[in-house]
Amino acid sequence: MRTPTRHTLLGAAGAAALAVTALTTLTTLTGCSIVDGVVQGVSSGVSGAFSDPNVEPTEPDIVIEVRFEGDTDTGSSARVDVDSPTSGTSYREDSVELPFSKEFRITADAFLPFRGVTASIEVPEAGKSVSCEILIDDHKVASGTATGSGSRAECERRLRLGPS
C-alpha cells in the first residue's frame, strides 16, 4: 500500500479549497442580475413550452396489428385479447370476412405497457384452412395455421425479458 506524499495531501487540500471558492463565488453571483436573468429566462422558457395550449405532449404508442386469412370468405369465432395495464382490450366476433385486419394501440406511458397478445380463429365448415398473424410495430412476432373444418389457428406473443 502506498502512503500519501506531501504533494498528494496538498493536492487534496487544494481541490477542497478550490471547491469552497467556487461555491462562494456562485453564492455571491446569485444576487447578480445577470445570473438571475439567465435563470429566469431558462425557467420561463421551460414552463412556457409545457403551458403552450398548441403543444400537446404525447407518449409513443405500441401498435399491434392482428391479421386473419383463409381459403374461404369468412372465418369463425375470431378472438383477440390484448393484455395491457393501461390499454387492454378484447375483440370477439362469431364470423369475420377474410382477409381480416384489426389494429390496437397501446399507450407506452407505463413501466411495462404491454404484457401480451393472443389471437385465434376457426376454420368454418366450408373452409379448409385459416391463419393468424400478430405484428407489433410492423414486425411479425407470431403466426399460426390450422387445417380442417372446426380446427383453430392460434398465435400468441407474451412479454419476454431479455433478447426475443
From TrEMBL:
Highest taxon listed in the record's lineage: Bacteria
Q: Where is the composition biased (Basic and acidic residues)?
A: 153-164
- Region: Disordered, residue numbers: 71-92, 143-164
This chain belongs to the protein called Lipoprotein
